[in-house]
Amino acid sequence: MRKQIGFVQQDVYLFAGTVLQNIQYGNPVATEEEIILAAKNANAHDFIMSLPIGYATDIGQRGVKLSGGQKQRLSVARVFLKNPPILIFDEATSSLDNESEKAVQKALEKLTENRTTVVIAHRLSTIRNAKRILVLTDQGIEEQGSHKELITLNGKYANLYNMQLRIEDIDEGGN
After folding, report:
1. Strands lying side by side in the sheet with 86-90
2. This model's pTM is above 0.90
3. First-last CA distance in the chain
4. Band of the pLDDT at 129, cuts 50, 70, 90?
5. For the chain, what is the mean pLDDT?
6. Rounded distance, CA 156 to CA 164, Å?
7. Main-chain dihedrals φ then ψ at residue 9, nearest 5 degrees
8. CATH for 96
9. Quick check: 3 and 81 in contact, CB under 8 A?
10. At residue 6, does pLDDT exceed 80?
11. Number of domains in the chain
């Protein structure tokens, strides 16, 4: 069962060792070429190549030598390498700055193609392109549908989405 599911969460766990070893954890028998391809798909290859010795760079215990966005991209590369049919993203971009979020989001979109994907998110822009969105409350499923359907419904999802848009607009210096 574990081989069928790929999990990307907010708090990434990386091991003491090299970049290559940390990505290879997704598939211990993967070749170096497969690892590099996974890193490219995760938008991680360029930053890896800028490290002192690229894929052979030691990242320290839990990846202390990397930024949050870099850690997250290694986690996504690991899942690309694993190549499971089912994905679970648990707040995968919530702690990232805007630039890192865009890079990770782009990689996640590529990764989700033709896979069953469950995304747990408070930042609704993360799930906007989902085929089906479930709005959960303490009472259970309150609303469900596509982004467009839920916006048209003008219920809880629409209110939360519009509120987040206003907050982002204020944060970016808008009106």
Report:
1. 5-9, 86-90, 116-120
2. no
3. 49
4. confident
5. 87
6. 12
7. -120, 170
8. 3.40.50.300
9. no
10. yes
11. 2
Structure tokens at 125: 């822009």
Residues 158 and 82 placed together within one structural domain of the fold: no
The backbone region for 91, taken as left when phi is positive above 0, alpha when psi lies in -120 to 50, beta otherwise, is left
Closest CA to 92 of 126, 124, 115: 126
Domain that holds residue 100: 2-130
- pLDDT, greater one: 44 or 121: 44
Structure-block tokens of residue 82: 């694993």
In this structure, what token pair is assigned to residue 14?
């990386």
Helical spans, DSSP H, in 6-155:
19-24, 32-41, 45-49, 68-82, 98-112, 147-153
Token pair belonging to 168: 């982002």
What are the structure tokens assigned to 163, written together?
């509120």
